Amino acid sequence: MDQDFRDRTNDFVVINDFVVKVATVNGTGSASANGMLMQAMFRMGVPVSGKNVFPSNIQGLPTWYEIRVNKHGHLARSPNVDLMLAMNPKTYEQDIAEVRPGGAVLYDSSWSLDEEVLRADVLFLGVPLSHMCVENFKGSRERILMKNIAYVGAVAALLSIDIEVIEEMLAEKFSAKQHLMDSNEVAIHLGYDYAKEHFDGLLRIRIEAMDGNRDSVLMTGNMAAALGCVYAGATVAAWYPITPATSVMDSFRGFCSKLRKDPETGKNLYCIIQAEDELAAIGMVLGAGWMGARAFTPTSGAGLSLMNEFLGLAYYAEIPAVIFDVQRTGPSTGMPTRTQQGDLFTVAFASHGDTKHVLLFPADPRECFYFSVAAFDLAERFQTPVFVLSDLDIGMNDWVCEKLEWDDAYVPDRGKVLSAEELQEMETFYRYLDVDGDGIPARTLPGVDPKGAYFTRGSGHDRFGRYTEDGDLYQDVVDRIARKIEGAAEALPAPEIRLADDATIGLVTMGGCRGAVLEAIDVLEEEGITLDFLRVTGFPFSAAVDEFLLSHDVNIVVEQNRDGQLRRLLVLETSVPKSKLASVLDYKGSPLSAEVVVRGVREQLALVAVQAG
Amino acid sequence: MTQTAKPSVRHPRSKQNKLGLTQRDYEGTQSTLCAGCGHDSITAAIVQAFFELDMPPHRVAKLSGIGCSSKTPTYFLSEAHGFNSLHGRMPSIATGANAANGGLSYIGVSGDGDSLSIGLGQFCHAMRRNVNMLYVLENNGVYGLTKGQFSASADVGSKAKRGEENLMSPIDPASLALSLGASFVARGFSGDKKQLVPLIKAGLTHKGFALVDIISPCVTFNDHEGSTKSYAYTREHGHEVVETDFVPLLHEIKAQQDHGAATAVTMHDGSVVRFRSVDEGYDPTNRDAAYAHLKQLQAKAEVATGLLYIQPTSLDLHAFENTVSEPLVDVPFEKLCPGSEVLAELQSRWR
């Protein structure tokens, strides 16, 4: 070891502001070890995020996990890797190349590194993980699994993670399985003790307990969305398995199996149907919605493509439905385990003919919960499908979020549903008659009263619900539906707006880009560039979105797709001139980083300056 | 062209059922199908069946896909909610509706294009889930609304109106249903209402998926010489394998001594289906034998009709999903939402 290097690193220790990346092979059990590392940091009260970068594969391909610790709470993905745990020899070259100068690589020194991958500006820390595990454990499976736990121990020593926190987590996890507890204990200490002995105080990054996270929890967006469905009172769920939406239904089933059993009979107060495809999944949701149940389906872009036919029917026949679109990269199969925001166009005007749908864009798991509940209210109130668009990063990664709260006074908004008594008092019920002038007609549920009967159809119908091929009568209905959907704009969650003093440029974004964009605003502010912030939370856009865009000279729209779908939608659906909108785009499949935003904004501002000058 | 309501006059001496309703109360709007269409005869049989079962019309949900057959739910039960869905997608709507509210009676009307081509997947999976519904497949071997293309049920050698011959094997819904494990499989002929009404009644009463495949000639595009789905052909080649009589629960069972060889199957609610085998030894509760017999007749270009197979008790969708007996739409919100304390408790573990 170079003595000078060690001394230099000790001169500027960075506390609670670094990135650790773990490079492993999928199917080896590393995911839970990595999660444990992140969880331990969370329990130490430090702001932290973990991003899983995984292949569409079950076993044997490279996979990565990125942990970012940031005392200021900036938790978007950061590409500046301080410590790389290089556990996959097949990707040594790219993994080691990724480390920032002055950073470190921890590798399994049971085998030596090739000369070619070595770098002079990076510290190499070899731990004989495989050797130690072969000596201490029996059976290949246990040796592989415990290697993961051993590197967790080594990292704990390197970063000064409180070993007691890790031991406490192991105790909770394996409380019923003493032999697993024992193996994990041994493995943790193999790594910890080795690193303590050989590399103590060597790294320039360190973690220190903070006072944070007390009112926070770790959750994924898919978990939170599923819990929202439970709390909103959804009873029917239909789906077809698809990454990255599958865990919405896994979670819903998990929650329901505990929270939705009839106390007397032990039977289910819910019905989950694994459909034959997404066509059937959305069909089942519509059948249930028509019948008066709160019903939903989770899917991703490829599933939405199949659902298009039914979405037009739902829009035109005015049937409530909630669709969770956990976005992944398209088109076609795309990169199914990578994130993107590429489905805006697909959902905003889904299906043939004139349609326009209500969309919600949660930024994090917490919003996935609240928007999920809101989506059911909106769907029933406006009698139309409502889409909650998250993405793989929000849906599948653990996020540190403020605890969810529930107001026990909440009453579901079932919209205009006529009871048997109300029907009896009416002379005649007509399904599509706009009695209140808000574009929302009353509906009835099957089985309630003979007077409520009507025929639901996707074919032309008049305001009385009768089949028609008369152009005027047809137009009367579709115009009313357009009014109804426009009316939803102000009922959606309000956009998030942050105004700086005297800013003339707006930074506009949606969904999971929030963190990276806010961090970029902070970085740019230090450079003297002040920016206002708008996060669009729903579609159709509210008046506040229009006002924000019009009141800025330039609005730079940051989003994760190639075609600037949000920017284009703003051009179409607000009064802002196209010339006032610019784009910063990122669509390689990774969660957005502030670096990309900062670079993109600088470029856009330079362009604006050239055009102005 | 808009739909036409029927005049609301009724004969003062119209027969009434136990609910005090006349058969007229089970009708819908005027049919707009071609004069002589087999589907209209099926509609009449459906009306009679519901009337005779004393079912309150508004406790029925009627659904369909797209096509001539799928228009027919407007022609019966005007006091029932109807859902004319998408081409081939009615089974999924019915499945979701049934999941939400198992307390209603469900009738789905489909055609051979709707069920055997564009909707084959959904048709199969609804049977697999044993959704509690009557599924009426109005089978004419041809696409009517698009003017005369062969459907997947067209028999080998059957001729289209313009003369071309179908060379591909047909998909036979009855044998398909038997092979998929369907719990009720019947076949009728639109020209034989006497046979059809008990089949529909038994199908409506059956708990689980009841398929009634009904040969229903298309007078405009498939009723010519050379067609195997014409009135003439079906009359000549139709082969009733069992005579079926449906006896609803609590209905006084009059001894019919002339049905000496009748066997009775009791359904889940206590209703009884009585059979008299026309073909010697035919046992409609033996799936494999039913399948084999069907195939033998098919090889002889004969169309087996009657209640071909019944499994009187089987697990349906709600049994598979272990749902409460109360319809899910009737469960109060308070029982569905776990509340703030549970949320706090849950989250205490997410650390």
Query: For the report, how would you describe the main beta sheet of chain B?
Result: 8 strands, mixed
> Over all CA atoms, what is the radius of gyration of chain B?
21 Å
Beta-sheet strand percentage of chain B? 15-25%
Main sheet: strand order of chain A: 11-10-12-13-15-14-21
Number of domains of chain B: 1
Give the helix/strand class of chain B.
alpha/beta
Layout of SSEs?
The complex is a heterodimer of chains A (613) and B (351).
Chain A: H1 3-11, E1 14-15, E2 17-25, H2 30-43, E3 48-53, E4 62-70, E5 81-86, H3 92-98, E6 99-108, E7 123-127, H4 129-136, H5 140-159, H6 163-173, H7 178-199, E8 205-206, E9 216-219, H8 221-232, E10 236-239, H9 246-259, E11 271-274, H10 278-291, E12 295-299, H11 301-317, E13 321-327, H12 344-348, E14 358-360, H13 365-382, E15 385-391, H14 392-396, E16 399-402, H15 420-425, E17 455-457, H16 471-488, E18 496-498, E19 505-510, H17 514-526, E20 532-536, E21 538-539, H18 543-550, E22 554-559, H19 565-573, E23 581-585, H20 594-612
Chain B: H1 38-52, E1 60-64, H2 68-71, E2 81-84, H3 90-100, E3 105-111, H4 112-116, H5 120-128, E4 133-139, E5 142-143, E6 149-150, H6 173-179, E7 184-189, H7 193-205, E8 209-215, H8 231-237, E9 238-240, E10 242-247, E11 263-266, E12 272-277, H9 287-299, E13 303-310, H10 317-321, H11 333-336, H12 339-347
Parallel strand pairs in B: 1-2, 1-3, 3-4, 4-8, 7-8, 9-13
Antiparallel strand pairs in B: 5-6, 7-13, 10-12, 11-12
Helix pairs in contact in B: 1-7, 3-5, 6-9
